[in-house]
Amino acid sequence: MSAATSPEPIGAHADGRARPPARQALAANKSPSARRSSSRRSPRDLLASTITKPHIPYKSYPPPPTTKGYGRVKSTRRLAEFGEPSDPRASAMALLVSGILRAVLPKTLAIKGFVVLCVLGAGILFGFHVTVHKSSCARNDASCQDILWKRAQMLFQKLKVGSTAAPAAGDIVTTTETDYRDDEEEGVHEWLQQNINESIKIGNDNDYYREAKAAPSSCPQSLRKRVMATAELRGLFQFDLPVLLWKSHLNFNEWQRLTKYRLPYGWRGMNWTDMVDAMESLGAPENRELFDDRMGKGGGRCVRCAVVGNGGILSGAGMGKEIDAHDYVFRMNGAITDGFESDVGTRTSFYLFSTNTMKNSRLAYQEFGFEHPSWSPETRYIFIPCGYQDYYMVTAAARGSLVHKGEDKNDRPWKYFGKENVAKKIKMLHPDFLRYLKNNFLPSGILQTDFRNFYRPSTGAIALLTALHTCDEVSAYGFITSNFRKFPDHYFDKKQKLVFYVNHDLSLEKKLWKKLNDLDIMKLYRRKMV
Q1: Which residue in 13, 42, 244, 308 is a FRET match for 266, CA 20 to 30 A apart?
Q2: End-to-end CA distance of the chain
Q3: Using the 8-state DSSP alphabet, how is residue 338 labeled?
Q4: What's the pTM?
């Protein structure tokens, strides 16, 4: 929102330039016949002339009377408006361009206009071409992916992160006995020390909100006990941070603190009223507790969770029954189960997403059967607040109303979440928790490049790390492993190979899952290709 400007003084613009002559002053230069015709105005015209007209912005004013040499000034002004008009260098450049055009181009006005239009058209096409190839390639465009892959390849070579060989679409990969080999050379201890001490964070952004006391686990084999028993892991895991955002987290001090950080790591750019509405939508006790079905039931047995990624390693894996046997099942994005029950199971306890990734999944995977997340009574919807639209969507979903503003204005949340008790089934991850995951577990070298604002941990990584901070035992299925080239990108699409983009660091995620598996913090499903 821009601040309102004060009225300009009469007869001059805000920057001191003189306004064009008033209409009354120009009347003195009219011919006698013109003055006689203007004096014979109808009563309606006379009445209209007495009404004060609103101020017209500078660019809407009629041009001053044409005088000798005015054409050159006019050209300079119009060209300067492509830059900053108050910048003398821009004006000088505009004057130079104007002079060159006058000297080189033919004097015929029609030919001049045609040439200028051709130049402008070529510039617009070139700008559009560059913009498309700088985007994240939402569509499956081969040339766009090719350019982004080359950029990512150069970036990863510079940072020495993982392998950069691009898999060909028609590759036939043979299987060897070294499918599980340790392709990362550094040891577990060295990797942990490097990850803790690397300090790739930009600025002092580890001022997290702390809960009064981390909730203990009564499970004897809880991963928290194994974490606390290892010195390196004690510095990595911090269980006293809130995982979910709740109504009580919004106050003046928290508002001031979190507006320092961009989304998804803070609230910079958010409107206070919109934030209050979103927090009111997250005010029920069920919104605060991840396992809300256990509220009031005390401790008890260990909480066993399966986190199911969409990786092609699950194609033909036959892990469906094992996945469904867990207490809770986490899924994300284009989580398709119909037709793949034997490989990925049927249950969805938690669906993690941002509004953007969910909608992109609907567009990209509709042909494979994905229309919306599961609507089962068990399913809870966990927002990852990557943009303003996530706060607008969570408000609309809780109220059962249309989205009231933003890119998704007038969208209907019930298309995605159904209409059954949605207000108590929605949750949202805390921005501090997301920033902590990025800082402690996935501080990618991309944060030191020009792509830093595009980077965030993948949705699958956020889901798995969420489970590691809330469950007692965690098993991960469908996540990237060292032999990922032997499998398609997704279990439901056997043609598309995995492509690395600079918005995620899948190489770093691959190393993280392997190390946590080696340390017995979680179980990572790995598979030989037969």
Answers
A1: 308
A2: 59
A3: T
A4: 0.65
